[in-house]
Amino acid sequence: MIIEKQDSREVHYFYWKTDLYKPFDYEPVTELEGVLCTRFHWRGLVLWTDPVVKGKPLMTFALGVHTPLVYSKSWLVYVMYCLRDLTPLEKFWLGFYLNIFNALLQGVLKLPKEGEFHGYMDRAVQGEVPERYKLKPSEWAFLLVVGSFPHPEKLPSEIAKRLRECT
Amino acid sequence: MASIVRVRRRGTVTLPKALRDQLGIREGSRLAVEVKDGAIVLKPLKAREPPTVKLGPELVEDLLSAGREAEEEKLRAGIPQSPAREAEKAGLDKLVEALEKAYSRGGGSGVNELLEALKAVSELEKVYGFVEARRAGEGSLKAGGLLVIREYVKEALYRRLTGGDPSSLLGEALSVAKALRELEALADKGAEIIGLEDLEVVGYVEGKPVYSLKRRNSPDK
Fold first, then answer.
1. Does residue B148 fall inside a structural domain?
2. Residue A97 lies in a domain
């Protein structure tokens, strides 16, 4: 895990050097004005509004899902598009991700027990994140909100700004 | 006088109330169905007798046999593994194997391996085409994934023939194929596979629609 300072916030990048079929993948996690945020497949941004907090919010990775899953009190999911003309690949990954949430919502898929986690700072290493992998919260094609949908005025300012720009 | 009933979707018929009352048939009642001399005969099954308590080895055998029956009942009630679904799984396994083989050779993947992967895509497309009564959302998601794989492998083949490195394209195609397999595994566990068509507008922010899943049954969350 690599920590990057972006202005006043920290972005934590989880990465795999030697994954069998997705090498050199970086999955960022950060906090945008008090809201947990992760990226999903390059141009998707995920806001986690109802995280399970045990001192800090808990997150994990699930097999086949190359993006952090934050333990949530509710697995309700909302989608907003900035661009409706997603590429076929983006459409597929968005659909796949929705199925993961749907399975979590229905109790078909269960995450490991929350008590087994201990934080991840012992995994922190020094290193540079390649430019193309850096998190840019104001650049997304679709936005997912997991949990309750926040009042529009309480959306992080970068998200709200991007929303106003969307066509 | 014989009553006349209409056969509805999936062969459903409603038994006339008078007939049900006469034979004590209620919701949940079990009926034996058979064809006799060109007629369909429905025979109400008697309610199961309460078990009599036995002691010793007989009791153990009964308990074991009850357990086996329950397991068999669970299997019967599970997701039916239709031949089409089995063919779909086998096709996906073959595709993943072909892509893994091509991807494992990185930039050196041979034309033959890429053609094998394309062949596996075509075979799976045929299987998808045969799967009947596929829900629109599920169907479009899977077909969309397969289309992506086909295009990426075709592009990889082009790159290979023009001296380029097809690794990244093959890696993406492989991750989509594995995701399709994950979806199959979720379906096996009883999850309903959905597509983007299964979203509905639930509100607006800044004049833009907010979508959510149509079904929101969250029993334990």
1. yes
2. yes
